[in-house]
Amino acid sequence: MKRKTVMHGAIILSVAGIFSKVLGACFRIPLGNMIGADGMGYYQAVYPIYILLLTIATTGIPVAISRMVSERLVAGDRGGAQRVFRVTLVIMSILGAALFAVMFIGAEYITSNIKDMEGSVYAMKAIAPALLIVPVMATFRGYFQGSQNMKPTAVSQITEQLFRVTIGLIAAYALLSAGKNFAAAGATFGATAGSLAGLAAIFFIYKRYRSSVNFRGRREETRQAKNLRRESTGNIIATLFVIAAPITLGAAIMPVMNFIDVHIVTNRLANSGLDALQVRTLYGQLTGFAQPIVNLPDFLTQAVAVSMVPAVVRAYKARDREFLHLNVQLGLRFAMIVGLPCSVGLMLLSEPIMKLIYFRQPADAAGAAPSMTILAVGIVFLSTYETTSGALQGVGKQMIPVLNLVIGALVKIMLTYTLTSVKALNIKGAAIGTVAAFIVAMALNYRAVKIYTGTRFDISKTFLRPLLSVAVMGIVCKGVHLLMSQFVGSHIATFIAILLAAVVYFVMIFATKSIHINELRYLPKGDKLTRLYLRTRRKFKRRRTRL
């Protein structure tokens, strides 16, 4: 059987992520144009609390399931893997119910303590039911990911996002006449509707998988395994907690930082002399306009991080050091290849991109552009941090990324508190703090990966070649935009510059051999891709020879 590298699952999740992000853009952009920065302030005031509670429920335990299922499959204990899933499903259902109660019942108290954001209480209650559903869906995803089957996760992600976008926009538009705070509530309800649809999709896949002849044959094979031993529920719960607790803690740090940001940023802006509308508008520009655009590339590196855990676990448990190092090296290179062009592109064209996307809110788009320029710097550092965290989790060092991000978070809090009250910086101070946190956490993670996995990275292939590729891309991107702006409108010039920059970067990645032809074999259908590439290259060479 062909071994699956981290890139196999990462590509499947990346394709799903592309569809999800496109759908997400079809939600955020019309929503921002519909309700403006003021309305997005209500919307974004709710999300840090929701994401924090969601992170507690859905980050650590699915990774733990993935790792535990993968370990049992390596040992041939498929029945044990199924038992881990069933026990975890009960735990996650109970946890989801508890978190739903906290958010729904405590909505008035929470929102009343956020300065100038009391009207967001309706948005908080509308999104709270999602906490009942998403933890259960995450359990199914973790189970399939443990067997390195990323397709069910991909299908549920796309289904969830499709319903979230459709229901959210319809509800927001229907409630807009009642006020922007009610429109924000309609938008957040889309998350509840989407999570229900995503759960239905993955449950249907699971039922088909369970009833398949192939699964029954494997189950019978497991019963006959000589080394099969029924694992106690208590032992499963204890192992889940040991693996999940530090991962959950680490994943919760960013939502906690964002939750603290709501209070620090709004209070420090108010203390600098801004009124309530100005505070809400600036906060909406940062979190509702700039951050969603900057977060778009994150799904690619999250896909690598999710795929990294089972791939590294299998190599680590099998003591296959060569395959372990290969997966870690591929993961980091992918993070750089994706993160660098996104950082540079958004930095160079921050204002044109914002005005292209939020064309109905030009003043808010222009106001959010400086923050996006700063946040864009952090994309490549966040990409690297997430990928290296997946590698460390795979070798059982899940506490290290937590401690590293805690250090980064402390740096962010200090910088945000200090810089946000400076009138010349205001909301940009929060963006600077965020980037600093990612830089610190990434540097510490990179060092830890080298120590605990023994992986040595090719500096030229991992860093220098992608940097050369992105430098050429950046020159083309900025040059084309400046030139085309003289002849066509800014929107068309921006669109053309982005397309040409993407083509140039793709060509440069292969020209500089940042990706080698042999590495295409590690992708899904990799052998076919390799043959297609070689056949295309031979045809191109023959045509060039004739000319």
Could you characterize what this model shows?
The mean pLDDT is 79. This protein has one domain. 84% of the residues lie in helices and 0% in strands. The chain is mostly helical and 547 residues long. The protein has helices at residues 6-58, 60-74, 78-105, 107-112, 121-127, 130-146, 151-175, 180-211, 213-223, 233-271, 276-294, 298-317, 321-348, 350-357, 362-394, 399-420, 428-453, 459-484, 490-511, 526-546. It is globular and about 65 Å long. The chain contains 20 helices and no strands.
Q: What keywords describe this structure?
A:
single chain, 547 residues, mainly alpha, 20 helices, 84% helix, globular
| Secondary-structure class | mainly alpha
For the sheet with most strands, the description reads:
none
Stretches where pLDDT is under 50 for at least 5 consecutive residues are: none
- Shape assignment: globular
Average pLDDT across residues? Answer: 79
Helix content: over 70%
How many strand units?
Answer: 0
Rg, rounded, reads: 24 Å
Strand content: under 5%
Query: What series of H and E elements makes up the topology?
Result: HHHHHHHHHHHHHHHHHHHH
Write a concise synopsis of the structure shown.
This protein has helices at 6-58, 60-74, 78-105, 107-112, 121-127, 130-146, 151-175, 180-211, 213-223, 233-271, 276-294, 298-317, 321-348, 350-357, 362-394, 399-420, 428-453, 459-484, 490-511, 526-546. By secondary structure, it is an all-alpha fold.
